[in-house]
Amino acid sequence: MTYRYFLLSLVCLSLVTVAASATSIPEAKPIQELTDVKPTQAVFKDAGRGKPLVLRKQEDLAKYFAKDELEKITAKVDLKNQVVLVFAWRGSGGDRLSYDVLESFPEQIVFRIKPGRTKDLRRHVRLFALRSNVKWSVK
Asked: Cα–Cα distances in Å, from 123 out to 28, 47, 51, 108?
């Protein structure tokens, strides 16, 4: 008889756990790259390889993106909970920008820039949406 009560309580507990996990709201990823969005040429004046633009509001985004591109961003990014980082620079075609997500809460993201060795001058633009509470740095 005791075994039946134990088994019944175990089943009820597992059902409650499953129900609670099904109703929880999924949290946004710490970083998301925005690949199909093109900014205007104004980003090259204000952003750099080691100093990205940090855009937090719709008005900030409107300075650097055309209306149709702005709609793409707002469809993917929740500006209440995320910020947009824009890296834009002119440099070697071999320049590379990468990032690592360090495991902690809130997460820490370290961007690394590896300069290229070729002498061809190219324009580079990389956009990222980061959760607001994520710490980031450029090395």
From this structure: 30, 12, 15, 27
